[in-house]
Amino acid sequence: MDNKEINELKRFFLVTPLGLEQLAAQELVFWHKEAKDLEELKGGVEFTSTFAKACELNTCLKVPSRILLRLTDFRCRDFPKLFQKIQKIKWGGLLNSKHMDIVTSVHKSRINNRKRVQLTVFEALQKSKDASLKLEDIKPQKLFIRFFNDQCFVSVDLSGDHLHQRGYKTFSTDAPIRENLAAAMVYEMFGSKNWTQAAEDIGKIKLIDPMCGSGTLLLEAAQLFTKNKLRPYGCDKMLTAEQLEKPGVFEESTYQWAGLEGYDISDKSIEASHQNLANTQNVSLRKLIKFQEQDIFKADEIENNEAKPPDGKPLEKDTTVQRNWVICNPPYGERIKTEGLRNNDFHWLIMQIIKKYSPENIGILLPVKNVRGLKPIKAYKRRTKNFENGGLKVSFLILQKKAP
Ligand SMILES: C[S@@+](CC[C@H](N)C(=O)[O-])C[C@H]1O[C@@H](n2cnc3c(N)ncnc32)[C@H](O)[C@@H]1O
Q1: Which of 55, 224, 375, 376 lies at 20 to 30 Å from 367 by C-alpha?
Q2: To test the ligand 1 pocket, which listed residue (181, 264, 274, 335) has its Cβ within 8 A of the most ligand atoms?
Q3: Any residues with CB less than 8 A from the CB of 221 and at least 6 apart, and which?
Q4: How far is the first Cα of the chain from the last one, in angstroms, to the nearest whole number?
Q5: 164, 174, 269: residue to mutate for ligand 1 pocket, most atoms within 8 A of CB
Q6: Which residue has the higher pLDDT, 307 or 85?
Q7: pLDDT for 304 beyond 60
């Protein structure tokens, strides 16, 4: 793609987990103040920007699962027209793989055979001279063809692998949370505050995950305002080496938590968390985040027992941190259980968290049905954010301590 083309305004779409569209829009504006004409739709956010900036957003945004370039849309009620329109698109520079993954959806349209849509698009691409230039034998590239009300929308993927695959999490445990959902949970704890102000405030807060599994929530919290350069992105291949090397437009921020502590009853989880932390290749994070084996219900051991860094040396007690926030994703009690918790009594679990950490804010991810039945806790205001986690409807319950 030439320099003129990468700086032209185009329309893009952030594919976002259902229920997190508004957070994704907020995150987009946080990084990209000049993004124009934002439109929140079901499952994503559309906006106008340049190709160069949209490519760079792959490294910045933590909530979306991919970024698409909206190529064109046209009215289409028959296959010959689809063939002709696809063939005519200026594909040069947009396609890079010999292998296409043509993702189709059809709703309320005369064309309703998805398989035939795929075949027609594939054949049209093969016949298009413009599309067959410089194709490499690499992973399939995703092309999205959506029919709605007889309108055909064509989009091309700019992300490559799903964006939740950050590149640091090679070690996993039972029921890990997806990285983009984890990041969304951390953002959601900021509440209605302006994010820049919230980001400045995290320097006074210690974030604790008492059931950290492979460490996802804390690792996402620690890297919220940094760019992810641990993996390649689909659009890297669409840019020249010179365009890729140019310094980006979006600046990383230096906001960081006062501390991050993760605990888990399982030694394997703590080992996985340490390995994932090492994979971030960020030396300062290794000093900041501590993971340690610990049972949430063994309250009395905690007081003088701060988490230890990987080298095992005890830490000096930090007396400057006044405010604790707790974030957690406990087992839901169906496939895996919270050890020591009877009858899925999540109220009791929350009371235990309060007793142990006296947190100012608690964010806990539970199935919707369990949150509905929870008793109120006098000293805390509550709000919820619902989304889906691995096909299950979940509710992120946030309890915020009332002012005295
Ligand atoms: C759903 S997983 C958390 C997954 C984590 N968010 C991640 O992304 O990897 C729940 C974790 O709670 C831990 N756990 C269960 N009972 C516990 C207890 N009594 N105290 C501390 N951790 C416990 C399990 O070992 C498991 O790692």
Answers
A1: 224
A2: 264
A3: 182, 183, 186, 207, 257, 260, 327
A4: 59
A5: 269
A6: 85
A7: no
Q: Could you give all domains of the chain from N- to C-terminal order, each with its CATH number?
A: 3-157 (3.30.2130.30), 179-230+239-401 (3.40.50.150)
Distance 365 CA to ligand 1 centre (A): 12
Residue whose entry in the numeric block shows the structure tokens 């959506």? 146
Give the model confidence (pLDDT) of 208-229 as tens digits.
Answer: 999 999 999 999 999 999 999 9
CA 61, 90, 121: angle at the middle one, nearest 5?
85
Is residue 309 predicted with pLDDT exceeding 60?
no
Residue ranges around ligand 1 (CB below 6 Å): 173, 175-177, 210-211, 213-214, 216-217, 263-266, 269, 295-297, 329-331, 338-340
pTM: 0.92
Average pLDDT over residues 63-69: 98
Q: Mean pLDDT for the chain?
A: 91
pLDDT band with cut points at 50, 70 and 90 for residue 321? low
Closest listed residue to residue 45, CA positions, set 24, 62, 60: 24
Q: How many CB atoms lie within 10 A of CB 372?
A: 10
Amino acid (one-letter) located at 162: H
pLDDT at 146 over 60: yes
Q: Hey, whose CA ends up nearest to atom 26 of ligand 1?
A: 213
pLDDT at 325 over 50: yes
- Report whether pLDDT(282) > 70: yes
